[in-house]
Write a structure and sequence with these properties.
It is built from five helices and six strands. Strand 4 and strand 5 form a beta hairpin. The protein is globular and about 40 Å long.
């Protein structure tokens, strides 16, 4: 079973200056957390996704696990909330079929794409990937 969590207000406070880290006070993002190469990552479930770095949970409505907004969790005790998240039934049914290994592999692919984009930031698609990715705030963990 996947680890499904919310991040705490402290996390968002500590990263308040990081514009690509999305915060929603009234409806916080539900995140899936996994360990990749010894680092704990929280990857949000989002809507209105329009890029390829996703595992779809409801493709028709643009909903899925959005790797472009993944964040490293350096202080799990402070940054992972004990509050239980609610997930829409249709998305939960899809999530039950996805295993951690698949998410870890997709996260590794995304990290590799990000690092490759850093080698050629002058290319338009790379510039966009680098600009909108939350990995820019966590490069020390890549």
């Amino acid at each position: 079973m996947l680890n499904i969590v919310f991040l705490t207000k402290k996390f968002f406070s500590d990263y308040a200056g990081c514009d690509e880290i999305r915060t929603k006070e009234k409806r916080p993002y539900v995140c899936i957390y996994v360990v990749v190469d010894g680092v704990l990552w929280a990857i949000p479930l989002r809507s209105h996704i329009s890029h390829e770095y996703v595992i779809w949970t409801d493709k028709e409505n643009g909903c899925g696990i959005d790797f472009s907004k993944a964040v490293a969790i350096s202080k799990p005790d402070e940054y992972i909330s004990s509050q239980k998240p609610y997930i829409r039934p249709n998305e939960f049914a899809v999530l039950k079929k996805i295993n951690k290994y698949t998410i870890v592999q997709k996260m590794k692919q995304y990290m590799k794409a990000y690092l490759n984009a850093k080698n050629h930031p002058e290319i338009a698609r790379n510039k966009q990937l680098l600009e909108f990715s939350t990995l820019q705030y966590f490069e020390e963990y890549l």
